[in-house]
Amino acid sequence: MGAHSFAHIPRMNARLQLQVEKIMKTRPIHPWPVRLTHWVNAVGMVCMFMSGWAIYNAAPLMAFTFPKSLTLGGWLGGSIAWHFAVMWLLVINGLVYVLYGVFSRHFKRDLLPIRSAEVKRDIADALRFRLAHIKGRYNAVQRLMYWLVLAMGVLIVLSGLAMWKPVQFQELASLMGGYDAARWVHFGAMSAIGAFVIVHLALVVLVPRTLLPMITGGRLPAENGNPGHE
Questions:
Q1: In this predicted structure, what is the pLDDT of residue 133?
Q2: Which of 54, 60, 29 is nearest to 180 (CA)?
Q3: Which of 137, 143, 144 lies closest to 213 in space, CA to CA?
Q4: What integer pLDDT is reported at residue 230 of this predicted model?
Q5: What is the pLDDT of residues 89-106, one digit of tens each?
Q6: In what residue span(s) does the Cytochrome b561 bacterial/Ni-hydrogenase domain sit (predicted)?
Q7: Ranges of the chain whose pLDDT falls below 70
Q8: What are the Cα distances from residue 35, in Å, to 73, 162, 207?
Q9: What is the CATH number of domain 3-221?
Q10: 168 contacts 128 by C-beta, under 8 angstroms
Q11: Between vectors from CA 49 to CA 44 and to CA 54, what angle results, nearest 5°?
Q12: Burial state string for 116-138 with b = 16 or more CB within 10 A and e = fewer than 16
C-alpha cells in the first residue's frame, strides 16, 4: 500500500475538525433534562388520566362516566394502585424538573418574565394566526401556560393528598373545603391540565417541526439567545 493511500487522511481530519467546531458553536434547543422529564411526564400523565377516570367512574361527580376502553387498572383497586404508583413517579420527575429549572436558570432565562402586554399581544396574534414562532424561544403565551400548568400540577397533588388521607391531612382537606370539595378541585385541575395537553398537541400538529427537537434536542447557534422551545 503506497503513501498516496493515506494522502486523504489530513483532509478527513480537517473536515472532522470543522464538523466538531461547528457543533461546538451550537447549543441544544431542548437540553436533555428538559426532554427526559417531558417524556416521563407525557407517559405518566396518560396513565394518570386513564387510571383517574376509572376511579372517577366508581363514584361519578357528574351525570357522565368515561368509556371503560379509556380507563386503566381493570377494577377500582387496580386503578388506584396504578394511580398511586404513577403519582410518585410524576412527583419525583416534577421535583427533578423544578430543581433543574432553578439551578440551570432555565426558569429565569426561558419562562420569565411574563408581561401582561406581551400576553395580550400574543393572544391577539394567535387568534389572527399571525403569532411569530421563533426557533429556540418561548413566546409570552407559552410562558404563561407553562407556569399555569405547573400551578395546576401542585394543586392536583395537594387535592389528591386531601382525598387520599383526609384524616392525616385534615388541615389540607379543610383548606380544600372538605373531602367532597377536594374531589371537585382535583377534577378541575385535571381538566385544566387536560385542556393544556389538547392545546399543546394541537400546536404540534400545526407546527410539526417542533416535535423532532423534543426527541433529538435539535441545535441552534450558541449566540442566538437561550435554550427554549422551538
A1: 67
A2: 60
A3: 137
A4: 41
A5: 999 999 999 999 999 988
A6: 30-217
A7: 1-25, 132-136, 221-230
A8: 28, 31, 18
A9: 1.20.950.20
A10: no
A11: 125
A12: eeebeebeeeeeeeebeeeebbb
As a whole number of Å, the end-to-end CA separation of the chain is 50
pTM for the whole thing?
0.78
Query: Facing residues of 27 across strands?
Result: 220
Domain boundaries, the chain: 3-221
The Cα 213–Cα 219 span in angstroms is: 8
Distance, in Å, from the CA atom of 186 to the CA atom of 19, rounded to the nearest integer, reads 51
DSSP category for residue 27? E
- pLDDT of 77: 94
Q: What is the pLDDT of residue 226?
A: 47
| Cell digits of residue 30 | 431542548
Residue 214: count of CB within 10 angstroms of its CB = 18
